[in-house]
Write a structure and sequence with these properties.
Length: about 900
């Protein structure tokens, strides 16, 4: 009901403003390539070359632009009707008689730089791109009919840097459209609005397209007192390292927004559209949206006010904040003023940044923030989100810090990090999740405890999934997915198109687990104030970054559900802290139970239930105690077969990260077992779950199997005569040696890729370019494994079709083999999913019949992996399979064929450089 009332109030305010207005929506004449006034040149409206266009709209939505010359574009979606330059929109307007001697305003809710003419005479020009443009018509424009011409130019009028470095313009997402979107109206202007821009803006520098008395600067359409402040935004303030609202500590569960609207190529302008978008965000537990280098329209703020979502708009820039560039500085300062004055009254607008990943003059950044604070002192400000990629640390003038790290770091150290995943260019081994043995204890306390102000994890996640080519049919608007078509053709060319859906599913299900891990690292950090994911939505630009759990349309990919996602992305999240997830029989479990409590009330008196269950029902746990922080102890009675459950009482009044108790016990299993430990707070929706694996402890049985690093002549003879060979070539193996056998040579590099545990970060091509330019190791670029859990090789190693935490030691010690030269229909037992740029067929575990013998190739050093229980279990499972009658490879190959295939260079993939603005 409160939401309905708020929307109704906003609607009344809007109606009041529009009561004396005339909508100009509808048909207009449009002439491409035309600047200036046709009326002025010919003394009449030029109709000869004019086409018809519907406004609000763009050249693209009116299908008046030019067909693409390049249908091989893979860095972003392709505009089917692109246009860059001037477009002259014209129509006849009729000013009512009762508007005589009253100031008349032309209102353009959102557009590009414009030049407005009435009856051939220039009224003024304006380059506001983040807020409405308002023109005061000359007093001599009397009631009656007049020719109105609006020249919109998406190729001039703003600093050159903005075209490629702001999501207000870049072709990566919103596109550099030409048109007018949102409301287009004639309005009666108030006496305040009709004052000159000079009077209202004082000494603030003007933007790069000068405005004069004809342009009305941005101003709030309603004062804060006109709206009843909703609870989520009451008394929004900072205390130390945390945000508070309505008297309670809050945690910002944010997403990044890059203006991805694939059907129109421009931002949504309706409240209904934003209610749907932000409503989906809320379904997935998101309570905060950061607008990367752009600012949304009024409708977004209205919807966010209603739904209780905090917004952080940014200046439309991403790059060098150079104080010497006076044109750029003036433009950005004006945009900032406009944003604050236009939208500052909205309860959802609580934070603001100067742009994305800026570098340049820090003193100038502080000057901007100081100026903006004078205009809107109720907001909190930071310099550019992740400015200087976090290396410069916290500076005076920053109220909070959105960053991936706090200050500098030594390569290979993680003590300044504030997120769990990075590119290989920015952190050793791609960050903490990829580097360290899987656990649920890692956090960012070391970095955040030193900060003293709220820290928000910047662009958390960025875990790729393989694209879903079924999505292509959704692109029925102005943007076409030629990138999808190119990637799909590449996959078909190497004979793996039939696996596309499985690649998508396996990589996607694994990415969800990775996002959970990264988010929970934030929740386990006592002085972390929030995160901004990149993203729950795919980003179809910058090389095509399919990093979302939802597609570009904010629709499900089928890899998670809102209910599952909210387990770790909610106001209240139960957490289990464990040093590892994999155990041996007889090993103790020692786990701490905590709750990230940002729900606005104490949990004292609540009961936290735990439940432990095995998939196969064959486990027991004995001699266990389950104790709360305040000492309540429950002792198990005898062996706990198949499953068990218990209760921990919560005694804490605290908000934030709450210690609840500990779980201690001993695992006993009869066979390899996967367990699920579930936590839920009684009487609430708060629940979470963790997968554990327990393996019997026994000696490796190698009888009957030849284990070889090299396929030398002696091993080959045994193989061809009927032996069973497990070949585990080392990372430095060269498959064809001087003696024409398959052996090791330390000075050679085989046709393999490295072992990457997590899915590749953001986009392989872009960060390959950056790594090479910065002389850093390039990521292996893979997206996890694909396998069949029912294959007999996994009898001793429970698995899904995708990577999970128990695969860590095997994958980290691996170097998957490129199988492009092998038969197109050949499928490895364990396949590694490659990225969309290379599309190699990659094998981790493969098998063939060779002569009378049987060969199993494992591209992982299982001797090293076996130092962990899960690595040892996989090794045992492989050996057990090879020793059984089920080891009977369907594919056959001769040694000569194998030598030939391994000696041939695989398909070469040439990737053009793809640079990132942020790599200053």
């Amino acid at each position: 009901m409160r939401r309905i009332v708020l929307i109704a109030c906003l609607g009344l305010v809007s109606l009041g403003l529009q009561a004396q207005s005339i909508s100009l929506a509808g048909e207009w004449n449009v002439e491409l390539g035309k600047s200036g006034s046709a009326f002025a040149k010919s003394k009449r409206a030029s109709q000869g070359e004019a086409k018809r266009a519907i406004l609000p709209g763009t050249i693209d939505t009116n299908r008046l632009g030019f067909a693409p010359k390049d249908t091989m574009e893979t860095t972003h979606l392709t505009r089917l009707y692109a246009y860059k330059g001037a477009a002259r929109y014209s129509r006849t307007i009729n000013i009512p008689k009762d508007w005589k001697k009253k100031p008349v305003e032309l209102f353009l809710e959102r557009t590009r730089p414009t030049w407005v003419y009435v009856d051939g005479e220039l009224v003024d020009s304006c380059n506001f791109i983040s807020t409405p443009q308002r023109y005061l018509l000359p007093k001599k424009v009397k009631p009656g009919k007049h020719l109105l011409e609006i020249v919109v130019d998406n190729g001039r009028g703003v600093p050159e840097q903005v075209y490629g470095s702001s999501h207000a313009y870049t072709e990566d997402t919103q596109t550099n459209w030409n048109g007018i979107i949102g409301r287009i109206e004639l309005q009666l202007a108030s006496s305040v609005e009709s004052k000159s821009a000079e009077t209202l803006t004082g000494a603030i520098p003007r933007s790069s397209v000068a405005f004069s008395a004809g342009v009305i600067p941005s101003r709030s359409i309603a004062s804060p007192s006109a709206l009843q402040m909703p609870d989520f935004a009451k008394d929004f303030h900072i205390e130390g390292a945390h945000f508070y609202a309505n008297g309670h500590r809050i945690f910002l569960r944010g997403k990044h927004d890059a203006a991805v609207w694939p059907l129109t190529g421009h931002v949504e302008m309706s409240v209904e559209g934003w209610m749907k978008y932000l409503g989906t965000c809320k379904e997935y537990g998101i309570n905060h949206v950061r607008f990367h280098s752009w600012c949304p329209p009024e409708a977004a703020f209205v919807a966010a006010d209603s739904l209780g979502i905090y917004l952080q708009p940014e200046l439309p820039f991403w790059g060098s904040f150079d104080k010497k560039d006076e044109r750029l500085m003036a433009f950005l300062h004006q945009e900032g003023e406009n944003i604050l004055r236009e939208y500052g009254h909205h309860p959802s607008f609580r934070m603001m940044a100067l742009g994305n990943e800026l570098w340049g003059d820090i003193d100038k950044m502080k000057e901007f923030v100081d100026d903006f604070r004078k205009i809107a002192p109720d907001k909190y400000y930071t310099f550019g989100s992740n400015y200087y990629l976090g290396y410069q640390g916290i500076k005076e003038g920053m109220d909070y810090f959105t960053t991936c790290r706090i200050g500098g770091e030594g390569w290979g150290k993680y003590n300044t990090h504030t997120r769990g995943s990075f590119s290989f260019a920015d952190a050793y081994d791609g960050g903490m999740i990829n580097h360290f043995h899987p656990n649920s204890t890692m956090n960012f306390d070391e970095a955040c405890d030193k900060a003293g102000i709220p820290i928000i994890s910047h662009e958390t996640g960025q875990f790729q999934t393989y694209p879903d080519y079924r999505e292509m049919k959704k692109y029925t608007g102005v943007l076409h997915p030629y990138n999808f078509e190119v990637f799909r053709r590449r996959l078909a060319a190497v004979g793996m198109l039939s696996q596309a859906d499985d690649f998508h599913k396996a990589s996607g299900l694994w990415s969800v687990k990775l996002y959970k891990a990264d988010i929970e690292m934030d929740l386990r950090t006592r002085n972390m104030a929030g995160f901004q994911l990149l993203d729950i939505q795919d980003y179809p630009g910058q090389g095509s970054a399919f990093v979302g759990i939802l597609d570009a349309f904010m629709e499900s990919k089928g890899i998670t559900t809102p209910e599952e996602w909210r387990q770790w992305c909610s106001p209240v999240v139960p957490l289990l802290e464990m040093k590892k997830f994999c155990f041996e029989d007889g090993e103790k479990i020692q786990a701490k139970v905590k709750v990230a409590n940002y729900g606005g009330s104490s949990l004292k008196g609540k009961k936290l239930k735990w439940h432990l269950a095995a998939e196969n029902g064959l486990f027991c746990m004995d001699d266990g105690t389950f104790s709360t922080k305040d000492g309540e102890v429950r002792k198990n009675v005898g062996d706990l077969m198949a499953e068990d459950e218990g209760v921990l009482n919560i005694f804490s009044y605290d908000e934030g990260l709450v210690d609840v108790g500990e779980l201690n016990g001993v695992f006993h299993v009869q066979k390899p077992t996967k367990l699920l430990l579930t936590l839920n707070i009684e009487g609430t929706e708060a629940r979470n779950s963790y997968e554990l694996w327990v393996y019997p402890k026994k000696a490796l049985e190698k009888k009957g199997v030849i284990i070889a690093k090299d396929l030398n002549q002696e091993v080959v003879k045994v193989l061809e005569k009927g032996g069973k060979v497990l070949w585990m070539p080392t990372a430095s193996s060269h498959f064809v040696a001087a003696d024409d056998t398959l052996s090791q040579a330390d000075n050679a590099t085989p046709y393999t890729v490295g072992g990457l545990f997590q899915t590749d970060y953001w986009n392989y091509r872009m960060f390959k370019t950056i790594c090479e330019n910065n002389k850093k190791k390039v990521s292996p670029g893979t997206l996890g494994i694909l396998t069949n859990p029912e294959h007999p090789i996994f009898k001793g190693f429970p698995t899904e079709m995708h990577t999970n935490w128990q695969w860590f030691p095997v994958i980290k010690e691996s170097h998957p083999l490129v199988l492009d030269n092998f038969a197109k229909d050949y499928r490895p037992i364990v396949q590694v999913i490659d990225n969309i740029e290379r599309n190699h067929k990659l094998g981790l575990v493969m098998e063939w019949k060779v002569g009378a013998g049987k060969l199993l190739v494992c591209m992982s050093n299982l001797e090293k992996a076996a130092k962990y229980p899960e690595g040892r279990a996989f090794y045992e499972s492989v050996l057990g399979y090879m020793q059984s009658d089920e080891f009977n490879p369907a594919a056959e190959i001769t040694m000569d064929e194998l030598k030939k295939k391994l000696a041939e260079k695989p398909r070469q993939v040439s990737l053009k450089e793809l640079n990132n603005i942020s790599q200053y």
